[in-house]
Specification:
This protein is mainly beta. It has 3 domains: 46 residues, Roll (SH3 type barrels), CATH 2.30.30.30; 59 residues, OB fold (Dihydrolipoamide Acetyltransferase, E2P); 57 residues, Nucleic acid-binding proteins (OB fold (Dihydrolipoamide Acetyltransferase, E2P), Beta Barrel). Helix content is 2%, strand content 53%. The chain has a 6-stranded antiparallel beta sheet with strand order 1-6-2-3-4-5, with no helix packed on it. A 5-stranded antiparallel beta sheet has the order 9-8-7-10-11. A 5-stranded antiparallel beta sheet has the order 14-13-12-15-16, with no helix packed on it. Its main location: cytoplasm. It is found in: Cytoplasm. GO terms for molecular function: translation elongation factor activity.
Amino acid sequence: MATTNDLKNGMVLKLDGGQLWSVVEFQHVKPGKGGAFVRTKLKNVLSGKVVDKTFNAGTKVETATVDRRSMQFSYKDGADYVFMDTSTYDQLPINPETVGDAANYLLEGQDCTVAIYEENPLFVEMPAAVELVIEYTEPGVQGDRSTGGTKPAKLETGYEIGVPLFITTGEKIKVDTRSGEYLGRVNS
């Protein structure tokens, strides 16, 4: 148990009959009159739904102990993704729903963080940016400008993103895993 005064970003709370909610952001508010309160933005760990919730200051909230382990993606086994704990070398199969959008950027040997609660994987957290090779993109046409305009490009993971017109097949680029945006070329 903790109080709303102890809240931190990333903390996982157990609310509404055992549902797990991650604190995205919080703000302590002390109005001119009346009691202080805490305004929070919470994200449901399983569904990804984000809600705003207000607590009175000092209210007791139940926290969930979520174990964040550094793991490496090993291989895909049928539909499941198999991760290896880098400290114990234990292998953990995780279903595609739990892996979510991280699957778009996963390559064998990719390091990431897996959040585990009571031996059940909750979600896979990728680094903010990853470097991937472009498997295929249409060639740029003479007269295309280097500023503005994008074209679709298929990454080595099979995921498709928009890249600037001057990017060619076989180039290594940096991609933002949170938004799927092109961040720039990677010099080899």
